[in-house]
Amino acid sequence: METLTVPTGLLPQVTHARNPGMPLDLDWVANVQANTSAIERRAATISGRRSVKKEWQAAWLLKAITLIDLTTLSGDDTAGRVRRLCAKARQPVAPWMLEKLGLPHLTTGAVCVYHEMVETAVRALEGTSIPVAAVSTGFPAGLSPYKLRIAEIGESVRAGAKEIDIVISRRHVLTQNWQALYDEMAEMRAACGDAHVKAILATGELGTLRNVARASLICMMAGADFIKTSTGKEAVNATLPVTLTMIRAIRDYEDRTGIKVGYKPAGGIAKAKDALTYMALMKDELGHPWLQPDLFRFGASSLLGDIERQIEHFLTGNYSAANRHAMG
Known about the structure:
By secondary structure, this protein is of the alpha/beta class. It has 13 helices and eight strands.
């Protein structure tokens, strides 16, 4: 097997300045529209228009691994499960596969856990550069008392979380109370301090793509470093139309402010081919910088196992059973 060559522009990781936010511009918000039929038509063409095969597919899938926020957000999470997840994040691909590909060590982009498991994850990842992301602010509903949601952010940061995934109050979007959404997001951003903040919009509960676009813009105005589709607990999570809507809001924000904001689809992305589709869409719409972990993440767990299976198939010509690539 020849040494695998990763496509030019996919390897380097550049750290961009954080989003400082800006004053709320309600005129800009009011002018935001979303042509649902056009967005759906565009989204439907992505998987058929962009296809990579053989060594190029393997290279893109290896890149996808570095973009995964490896996640466990279950009610039955234990310290042992989180430690196993962290071990998988440290060594997401079997050493024999990396050796055969002639590639250096590889890790996932981050590990994402509930607040109570942050300290366990931080200890398990000592000696690595893998950050711990904590879901916060009354995840997943975001309906706990507001003061407690803000306090929860501080507790997660003190426990060692470098990234905080906060959930917005959906009612602010549904009632068009944009000032309340902006103020909430700005205060949560301030509570995060040096930790990067990802704003979870719970897009499956926002009603329309126009609401998604406007909520995306307001969260960026208030200082979100990333905007994220879903908690993974809604009936509808990440979709391509929602993704297209959100990343075009990111593009508009960069055009207006010069600031790059990251994007994280989460919930329901479990197959390697889905990861390739999302990556192709990001490259088409936003360019190479959004194929780096400081600007793009997948919120996923089972996705990694399917990517491993595809890479093993590339190396051996055979598909392995899923249990050969367990999470721990």
